[in-house]
Amino acid sequence: MSDPLFAAKIDSPLGPITVVASAAGLRSVTLNACPWDDAWTLTDMPDVTAQLGEYFAGKRTEFDLPLDPQGSVFDLEVWQPLTHIPYGETPTYGELARQVGRPKGAQAVGGANGRNPLAIIIPCHRVIGKRGALTGYAGGLDRKRALLTLEGSFSEPLSLFS
């Protein structure tokens, strides 16, 4: 039998966020509409709600929450350094690929980045394409632009095209 999962829906400036957690920590933070799973137990998540609220208010630059992301070994290798990208910084997929020891693996790293189950908390929105291209984001480019603008890192040099 699998671990019980707990879920909450949180209002945000980007629309509703669905949060799912195990006893070990957060499993997913989803910006797009997420179909409700009857296996989830509805609950309040005051720490998550408070920290996301502080982030959207510009008062929090990093999160202090237990995490329990599920993915392949490669996905986990890519997601780990994402947690260390400073607020307001925007490395490229190529830079991230080099950091995880796969200098020619920018596309593979981009794929793993796109599978990140913990939007905002594991800040995959901070990774951009070469030459400042604002590319790919599971939550949509408008939300990526909004998050980068909130963090003060979206400016004219970032492009919507590769």
Please describe what this structure looks like.
- The chain has helices at residues 46-56, 73-82, 93-99, 106-114, 141-150; strands at 5-10, 17-21, 26-30, 40-42.
- The protein has 162 residues and is of the alpha+beta class.
- 29% of the residues lie in helices and 12% in strands.
- It has a 4-stranded mixed β-sheet, with no helix packed on it.
- Helix 3 (93-99) crosses helix 4.
- The protein is globular, with a radius of gyration of 16 Å.
- It contains 5 helices and 4 strands; from the N terminus they run E-E-E-E-H-H-H-H-H.
Alpha-carbon distance between the two ends = 45 Å
Structural class: alpha+beta
Alpha carbon gyration radius: 16 Å
Described by the principal axes of the CA atoms, the overall outline is globular
Q: In total, how many beta strands?
A: 4
Low-confidence stretches are: 157-162
The share of residues in extended strands comes to: 5-15%
In round numbers, the mean pLDDT is 90
Helix content: 25-40%
Widest β-sheet, arrangement of strands = 3-2-1-4
Query: In DSSP terms, counting alpha (H) and pi (I) runs of 4 or more, how many helices?
Result: 5
Q: Which features does this protein show?
A:
alpha+beta, about 160 residues, globular, about 30% helix
Q: How is the secondary structure organized here?
A:
Layout (H helix, E strand, L loop, with lengths): L4 E6 L6 E5 L4 E5 L9 E3 L3 H11 L16 H10 L10 H7 L6 H9 L26 H10 L12
Parallel strand pairs: 1-4
Antiparallel strand pairs: 1-2, 2-3
Helix pairs in contact: 3-4
What's a quick, concise take on this entry?
The protein has 162 residues and is of the alpha+beta class. It contains five helices and four strands. Helix 3 crosses helix 4.
